[in-house]
Amino acid sequence: MGFCFWVCFISLLNFYSLSFVSSQADASAEGTVFIDGKAPIGRIDDDFICATLDWWPPEKCDYGTCSWGLAGLLNLDLNKNLFLNAVKAFSPLKIRLGGTLQDKVIYDTDDNQLPCTSFVKNTSEMFGFTQGCLPMNRWDDLNSFFQKAGAKVIFGLNALAGRTIASDGSAVGAWNYTNAESFMQYTVDKNYTIHGWELGNELCGSGVGTRVSADQYAADTAALQSIVQKIYQNVDLKPLIITPGGFYDSDWFTEYIDKTNKSLDVVTHHIYNLGPGVDDHLVGKILDPSVLEGVSGTFSGLHNIIKNSTTSAAAWVGEAGGAYNSGHNLVTNAFVFSFWYLDQLGMASKYDTKTYCRQSLVGGNYGLLNTTNFEPNPDYYSALLWHRLMGRNVLSTSFTGTDKIRSYTHCAKQSKGITLLLINLNNSTTVQAKLAFNSTMSLRHKHRSQISHHKHRIHKTTIIKLPQGIDGKIRREEYHLTAKDGNLQSQSMLLNGNILSVNSSGIIPHLEPLHVKSAKPIMVAPLSIVFTHMPDVTVPACKVQP
């Protein structure tokens, strides 16, 4: 096979450790990433990345700032080549259409007897706006764009139709689905493909603005399922039934999931764990590992409810903008937000979340794309790298040496190997990594069309240094993300030291890795993010088909 391994045995832990030795003399810290390669702990959808489009009109303002412009569904310019290219780059991108005002939207189908007018600002109305209307020619235009872009559409239906608001603030009565049914029938008649129909926005638990009881919501979900079965009876591809699209409440979700075990495909919840967008301490929160970890209870809580129930429903994050009320300019649309966003993607995956919808694709101060010119913000590139590198199977991963490193590992999307994501929250320390596996692991060495497999069954901790003979043969791919000029609030991101930007034709740039000899250390610079694709490191968990 042309080479051998130098092996010494240590009788402390039952881990296989691949050690990286650094020749750099500057200040740094060492740490170890422990990867359990025996079996996956979660599985995500292949199209895990999702983004939202909202209904907000230009008059939507927060704290004196109006950040939505023409990004709302009724106003969005669908003819921009850059916008089309940004969506097509994911092939496919899930897009969830919804948000606060979805529960005030009527659909201008033949059954509608009301004038089809846009939202008008009115502070005496719930959510601060009057009822609005979706014209069918606009729905046609939106679907034309989605078809061109190859998007998978999730549409959020108005769940307040037919209800009245009681003195205690709750919404009472059954859902009146007449207008929604007509709209769904129109959609099917036009041969528009809908990946999922979602009922309501933030009406569960304590609700936002108002709330619906779990028992009533379960009955309404059954009604939605019945409508879908009727309308789609002659359609091969059936849409998902998705609800409730609100904030996690253990008691409410437990009751609701128990009562929808035969009618629900996806249970969605929203994440805004950083508080209001007006908060001046958002950057500090984002860089605080205890704040990032604090939301894990939401993921684990919902995961356990689903696991302990008879439902077959999967968990999604249906909307997540981090900081509510449209985010914070130069924070939630800047480089620093990728620390929060990628950590969320990693954490959600660990708890078997199948899809994660970012608020927003465009609009507010938390868009993946700039609200006015559709130029990608840093998180767009973070999302695209995740989508291209992180496969479906999730591996248990932990890091020792510093609490400022966040670590996540998936089976690779583009190979039989693995992809490791390391996030360094420290502002002054470069971290050099060691990898440790507690399972049988293979190194695949390709040379002259031959593939050699070197397997090491683990009985003791084994420190293995890759000898010079294979230094140049086994390589990994690294994607280092940093802020332009070291400014965390920059809206420009560097990939391996090169600025990421679209060209004059609106073409999304290629995301090219560094090819690094595997015997070199994985170096994670201060306040940086590194994706490391190791195609030649294979573990049993990655042989399990999702």
UniProtKB/TrEMBL annotation:
GO terms for cellular component: extracellular region; lysosomal membrane; plant-type cell wall. It is found in: Lysosome membrane; Secreted. This is Heparanase-like protein 3. It is a peripheral membrane protein. Endoglycosidase which is a cell surface and extracellular matrix-degrading enzyme. Cleaves heparan sulfate proteoglycans (HSPGs) into heparan sulfate side chains and core proteoglycans. Residues 1-19 form the signal peptide. Keywords: Glycoprotein, Hydrolase, Lysosome, Membrane, Secreted, Signal. The keyword Membrane applies. Belongs to the glycosyl hydrolase 79 family.
